[in-house]
Amino acid sequence: MLIAIGILTFILIVASTWWFGLWSNLITLINLLISSMLASSIFEPISTELENINRSYRLLYDFIAVWLVFIVSFIVIRAITDTLSGYRLKFDNVTELIGRSILSVWIAGVFICFSFFTLQMAPLPPDTYGNSQTVDQGTIPDRLWLAFIQSRSRGALSSSKAAGIWPEYKLPDHPDDVGKDMRVFDPYARFLRFNATRRQTISKMKRLRVN
User: Fold this and answer.
1) What is the pLDDT of residue 204?
2) CB 168: neighbour CB atoms within 10 A?
3) Are 123 and 202 spatial neighbours (Cβ–Cβ below 8 Å)?
4) CA-wise closest residue to 159 among 38, 9, 18
5) Which of 21, 53, 97, 193 is least enclosed by beta carbons within 10 angstroms?
């Protein structure tokens, strides 16, 4: 069911964005990438702050935080780019047709990967991702996004472990990262397994609100 919904969403996004043209799709793709990477990188501190305010729904805060950051950042960045780009660039018919088609598929792919990544944190039934042997393997879209964000946390999105704007970094260094002063996202690739275990825990609860 999850894969079917993903395929349908992919088709709908491609069909809807294709009509906006090459230039608009290029701006949308940049906005989407920045917002998705930002949300994936900083949702944990936001989730922690929400938990400090009210711990009752802490099982939902990761999912809420990642989408909250994404929506707010996308709206803000879109408003900025629309202001800076007051005129739509025109291209010859062949470039326009090929460009808008490629970018529509690219936009849909990025959104599906990011969405499937966030769904790992949602209170879905444990069997959403397969049986007990495959439940912690996720799907191709979320694995692609996790690999991408992990690589960016070692690159363009890297920050110092002692950066004052973030909570204390307590994750153990992967052997490949020893001696490097950077906050690596999910260095031991435990994100999928952790959330699979959490879904198992949630499934045994009568309600999502906890004491």
Assistant:
1) 78
2) 6
3) yes
4) 38
5) 53
Which amino acid, 20?
F
Looking up tokens 């490097």 gives 180
Residue with tokens 């792919």: 109
Q: What share of the chain is helix, strand, coil (3-state, %, to 5)?
A: 65, 0, 35
Which residue bears the tokens 């949308």?
Answer: 28
Residues 129-184 have pLDDT tens digits of: 765 555 667 788 989 999 888 888 777 777 776 666 566 666 777 777 777 767 77
The rounded radius of gyration (Å) of the Cα atoms in the chain is 19
CA distances in angstroms from 20 to 13, 66, 80, 86, listed in the order given? 11, 27, 18, 15
What angle in degrees, to the nearest 10, is found between the helix axes of 93-119 and 2-17?
150
56 token code pair: 């009752």
